[in-house]
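Annotated sample (chain length 240).
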Amino acid sequence: MKYLDMLTHLGIGSAHPGGFAFTLKMLDTIPLQPGSSILEVGCGTGRTACLLAQKGFQVYAVDLRPGMIEKAKKRSELQQVKVDFAVGDICRLPFGDNQFDLVLAESVTNFADASAAVSEYYRVLKPGGMLYDSEVIRLHDVTGGIKDELVEFLGIAQLLSAEEWGAILEAQGFTDIRLSVSPMEELSAQDDLNHPDEHQIVSEGAYIDASVWHTSLTYTDMMDQSRDFLGSAVLVGSKG
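Output written by the structure step:
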């Protein structure tokens, strides 16, 4: 079973470094006016999108995986919030130009052609709109096969340094670029205790599916092996 299949089956809503605690911390730093229009790309099961809708924003969200969007729609119904969810490719977003005040990505752009995706983020933002993108990054060059094994296992398209991310944002037209780099923050049981996901939707039979747990254990093992050269970064840029 592939990594993203495992996340879909388990309905995990915050499978990025630092978990939901990191999401809350990042959202607190984003200057948004009431009623702002937000696009979350790679929204997964919709946990962040539904939180933003609860706060009164106009929220749109896309994910490439229909199974994720199905669970995201069920979550929005349970939480009684309005989010416009759609299946969509972040390299070919199904929106016109200049539509959103904010594009938000949480450990998503690594799974696509980064330059193509960032170009699309820029296109759909309004002039003056902001990109906030948190991604796993490479802290330094690595020899040996562990990096290639990690890239293949996760199904990501690249594992870039902070400098390489900054260059991509600049090349696609973003200005006022800021990058905040941190050591890798692993997901922890403490995050689940402090921020339980009351609307997590697990696929039938997932908890007794050996392939789900094999993939989960492999992920934990590979991240442990890779921790010395991995970090996370929040990438911030403005359109025009």
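Annotation: The mean pLDDT is 94.
Annotation: The chain has one domain: 3-239.
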